[in-house]
Amino acid sequence: MSKSVLQAVGWVFSLGCCGATIGVTLSHKWKKNTVEGIHHSVLDSVSNVAGLWDFCQVFPSGQTQCWPIAATSVPALLLFCRILMIFGILLGCVAGFLTICSFKCTTLGPEARHAREKLSLYCGLMNLLSGICVVVATSSYIYETLNTPPSVDPRGQSVMNEVSEAAQISLAFSIIWCLASVVMIAGSTTTAEPKVKYHYPTKPIPMQEYV
């Protein structure tokens, strides 16, 4: 497989992972817990879900009511996750655009082959850093959720926190993002340009006749 194909495949997967990360970042299904009704009836149960930006209550009727998390009451870990997710997404978008300029089939970017390879390598490293940021943010959130002690609701029932699907999807796509970045780097390794040797024609030295 040629390096250009590796670069293109890594770019496509990185771009897809970046788009998926934007979607899960806005989702409110990162953490969930279920509060059973006082009679332990399904019809009387309410599911609480939370994301990076808001928390919601899902009622048995299917109705969902959400409230934004107040800026003054954002936990330090949640703020840390927000910053890493936003930084990773922005860096991934910039890397995705610059990668287009490094393709040989485009007229954008530098014309020299060696310069394009360097740009592609830097874009691969930027994508790798983006994926690592998302991995760290998601892993920290999952770890904190799983290690949070159970709380007690007003009715005296124990409420356990569980990791919801958005956090799981974010972790899966961030790992794929890192792997795709490695593929990009493998397809963008710079190689030294061969030195061209020029052969200049030499004129024969005229023979002088001596009398």
TrEMBL record:
Predominant cellular place of this UniProt entry's protein: other
Biological process annotations from GO: bicellular tight junction assembly; cell adhesion
Transmembrane segments: 77-98, 119-143, 166-187
Alphabetically ordered keywords of this record: Cell junction, Cell membrane, Membrane, Tight junction, Transmembrane, Transmembrane helix
Membrane topology, from the record: Multi-pass membrane protein
Gene Ontology cellular-component annotations: bicellular tight junction; plasma membrane
Pfam family, one: PMP22_Claudin
Domain of life: Eukaryota
Cellular location(s): Cell junction, Tight junction; Cell membrane
GO molecular function: structural molecule activity
Functional description taken from the UniProt entry: Claudins function as major constituents of the tight junction complexes that regulate the permeability of epithelia.
Family named by the database record: Belongs to the claudin family.
Record's protein name: Claudin
